[in-house]
Design a protein that fits this description.
single chain, alpha/beta, Spore Coat Polysaccharide Biosynthesis Protein SpsA, Chain A, 8-stranded mixed sheet, 3-stranded antiparallel sheet, 13 strands, globular
Amino acid sequence: MQRHESASSIVSLPVIGSIPTMPSRGSSLSSVIHAVLPQVDRLFVFLDGFEDIPAELRDHPKIQPSLLPRQETLHSSSRYLAPHLSGSDAVIVLFDDDILYPPDYVSSIKLALAQRGGQAVVGYHGAIFMPPHQSYSQHKHTFHFAQGLDRDVYVHELGSGTAAFVSSVFRPNPESWRHHNMDDLYLAAEALKAGLQLIALKREHGWITPLAENQDDSLWRATLRDDRVQSNFMRDLLAHYVQPTSGDWWKRS
């Protein structure tokens, strides 16, 4: 799928936002929607565990809400359906329902993609895996989105809630993923297969701020309790960075 795009063509692309959420995030979701809606051309909202579409998401010309079926297993990975549903080439900007994004967030991340001709996945939360590579949760250096970063950094992993890419260049398929609570690792694996670098972008301290962190229902809290599957995935990922191989190896792990 990889295709080189000119900077001008990327700048002219529509921006499709994508955010997954669940009922417990209602208050923070409203703040996120208010912040990002003026910055995108269309916003996919994937509703996990909802009985009905919330009133504020109905009948808005920019918002496309989707109720995930009760038996749905994608959960937060549903955000990666956006490039498959958008119907045209676009800049895909992924959001979380507990992060407050500044007014120039989308224009900044879109410019970063344009400067690279779309040949990267970029974001504002990233990590480098560190020796001895035994624990995914403990053995990495994280560039947290709320902290300042004085230069762009190549990383092993990006946080899905601050990532963006060009759909004509990169189109990950979450329905083929074996696990649906490991978005960041699968994003890294798919980018590696596509030959795209992951870049954590420079920013000022406090430019992006958390609305909440480490909630009881957060995936990170669950990972801290047991990260054995993620740790095995991390080591496989590092092995393929060192010695790339073809094929969708992560779908069999």
